[in-house]
Amino acid sequence: MSKTICPCGSNKEFEQCCQRYISGAEFAPTAEALMRSRYTAYTLNDEAYLRATWDERTCPKERIVDGGASKWLGLEVKKHEAQEKEAMVEFVARYKIGGKAHRLHEKSRFVKFDGKWFYVDGIYE
């Protein structure tokens, strides 16, 4: 039986990586782990997880996922800086829409409330 490699780029098995956060079994221990699990949630079109891990003050009202229009191709984490309650994760995500390749380079901000990390917003490079 073959194991599924996690889409987040960790080279770990999905079950041992982002699935435990997406399933709600555990909370992501770092902003980087949360960012990786959010990328994986985008590959799975998991609207509920994306909303649950987005700071309610900045979470959009409109739909977050595109219902499978995007084909996510890979994630590269460039940098992770964290203090006790705030963090920044810089990454590059590659994807295709309608056969056209795109590259998202973002510096994402995260905050920690009640022991849990949340995505706030990002600056696009």
TrEMBL record:
Pfam families xref list: SEC-C (PF02810), YchJ_M-like (PF17775)
The YchJ-like middle NTF2-like domain, residue ranges: 30-122
Name this protein carries in UniProt: UPF0225 protein H8K52_07520
Gene3D superfamilies xref list: 3.10.450.50
Family indicated by similarity: Belongs to the UPF0225 family.
Domain of life from the UniProt record: Bacteria
